[in-house]
Amino acid sequence: MPDYKAPLRDIRFVRDELLGYEAHYQSMPACQDATPDMVNAILEEGAKFCEQVIAPLNRTGDIEGCTWSESGVKTPSGFKLAYQQYVEGGWPSLSHDVNHGGQGLPESLGLVLSELVGEANWSWGMYPGLSHGAMNTIAEHGTADQKHTYLTKLVTGEWTGTMCLTESHCGTDLGMLRTKAEPQADGSYKVSGTKIFISAGEHDMAENIVHIVLARLPDAPEGTKGISLFIVPKFMANEDGTAGARNAVSCGSLEHKMGIHGNATCVMNFDGATGYLIGPANKGLNCMFTFMNTARLGTALQGLAHAEIGFQGGLQYARDRLQMRSLTGPKAPDKAADPIIVHPDVRRMLLTMKAFAEGSRAMVYFTAKQVDIVKYSENEADKKAADGLLAFLTPIAKAFMTEVGFESANHGVQIYGGHGFIAEWGMEQNVRDSRISMLYEGTTGIQALDLLGRKVLQTQGEALKSFTKIVHKFCQTNEANDAVKEFVAPLAALNKEWGELTMKVGMAAMKDREEVGAASVDFLMYSGYVCLAYFWADMARLAAEKLAAGTDEEAFYTAKLQTARFYFQRILPRTRGLVVTMVSGASNLMDMKEENFALGY
Q: What does the DSSP assignment read for 37-60?
């Protein structure tokens, strides 16, 4: 299995040079403690922890998996000790409120650590990762007592958190859930029901687990309007803040999964468990979206992580593996054959992974800036603008980045040839681990409906304009810049087409609502490719400026320009096929009678 190396140079390029994070932090009083020296120290130490402590456990977690017993769930060897080191290092508290034991650093800085952890060992990273959503939900909607009791322990990492939504008969359609919450005389509730697919639902890494659970009150309206949200701890909290008596919640079994074996994915039974209402009654779904939006950006990072791991593994192998000679003559005449990196098709796969990993990093870090602005800015106009951008970009980041992350993971296997299919090289694990990313926190299809139906069409295109205006301004500013003319002209054309396609799909949807669902995934993927085109054009602009000014990192910036050129010439043309399918209409999907699908059997 290839050794993981944190991509700190590229992270610094995106944060410091492209997106101007230093000025970004200094523009908001709440973020001014994130000085360059502090940020660099966190990046260096975080990289060291990920490379040396949790990356070596990645293969162990895949082989051993988690084990269930009546007394609890045991995580793979080394996971618990690594988590103790993580807590002792203060990593869980990095970007949380100082009033609850956090370090008060920006959300976007915590996201960088999440990227490094996810690349090093996604299964391990899910244990603390789920806690972030629980913390944000309690911080946003919890009472003062709930924050004191649960948030302080979650922030330190002594306790972890989960989100409990899914039931066996309903996945995305949460209006069908059956878990009940009966009110008690003391103000608590007895929660009863079974939840499935609960990541990190039971484990031995922390002394307590705080479940955030969706359930129905006895008099709740039908559907999504009758859902409430509850805090249900594994162990009841004592008055001194310690974990006390065991609550009536348990793991009935572990799911047998395609990947992420090192993370416990649990069937959770709530047998009259004591719970506490969080937020208003029957408004649980609204409150849960605080958790869901956090998780969606976290899942976008998973797409980035698998692209990065596929690229790192593929590059290392392509440099070492000898096979055949270059078509233009031997490149390593002293060896039996040339390294496979000389072959055009191997370079196609490497450049695809590199373009997706580095482009996705730019997009998700840009999105993280909007998270900071919404949370910390004192300028209401800026907050409103950032909130609109965040709403628009989140479903694209989640769905597009996981789709291309999975594609990249597959390229990683392909570069290895037959060895890629063998477990010891780690590439097939990367594929298996990445496959879930397109399913949880809302499938690609659900994200696409959210993007096209809710975010774009229901706002009459205003959400789309929040981003296309940025692209338009960039193109206007750089239209006479000869160094990036090859990127600016096609980007401007796509930006214009984006709005035209939205109008065309919207007009069709006015006649037939099925047109939205029929076009949505193609629209989302088109949107993702155009978003990455903007970020690659901007990275090319910056690289050209650095090269023109003179730099001792000529190779680094030249590679940026060359990767941008590859993206525009080899990947961006995929939008042409998406345009055709997007506007082809719903009839080619909906006209076939249901019984005709099975003809031929």
A: HHHHHHHHHHHHHIIIIITTHHHH
Quote the pTM value. 0.97
Answer positive or negative: Cα dihedral of 444, 445, 448, 450: negative
Find the helix or strand (DSSP H, E) in which 272 lies: strand 265-277
Q: Pick the catalytic residue: 202, 441, 497, 500? A: 441
Outline where 418-513 has alpha helix (H).
427-435, 444-449, 462-478, 485-511
Distance CA(379)–CA(385), nearest Å, equals 10
Q: Beta strand 180-183 with 159-164: parallel, antiparallel or unpaired?
A: unpaired
Residue range 269-290, pLDDT digits in tens: 999 999 999 999 998 877 777 6
CA 157 – CA 559 distance, rounded (Å): 40
Q: How far apart are CA 453 and CA 451, in angstroms?
A: 6
Per the CATH hierarchy, to which homologous superfamily does domain 288-443 belong? Answer: Butyryl-CoA Dehydrogenase, subunit A, domain 3 (1.20.140.10)
For residue range 189-225, what is the model confidence (pLDDT) as tens digits?
999 999 999 999 999 999 999 999 999 999 999 888 8
Cα dihedral 533/537/538/540 (nearest 10): 140
Q: How many H helices and E strands in the chain?
A: 20, 11
Q: Tokens 């506490």 — which residue? A: 276
User: Which residues, at least 6 apart from 415, have a Cβ–Cβ distance to it below 8 Å?
Assistant: 314, 317, 318, 340, 346, 349, 350, 427
Read off φ and ψ for residue 269, nearest 5 degrees: -105, 125
Separation of alpha carbons 300 and 287, rounded Å = 21
Tell me the C-alpha distance between 297 and 161, whole Å. 17
> b/e per residue, 14-48, with b = 16+ CB within 10 A?
bbeebbebeebbebbeebeebeeeebeebbeebbe
Q: What is the pLDDT of residues 300-319, one digit of tens each?
A: 999 999 999 999 999 999 99
Neighbours of 146 (CB within 10 A): 18
Report how far residue 80's alpha carbon sits from residue 92's, in angstroms, rounded to the nearest whole number: 15
* Boundaries of every domain in the chain: 288-443, 450-586
Residue 242: φ, ψ to 5°: -85, 165
Catalytic site includes residue 441:
yes
How many angstroms separate the Cα of 124 from the Cα of each of 110, 116, 127? 16, 12, 6
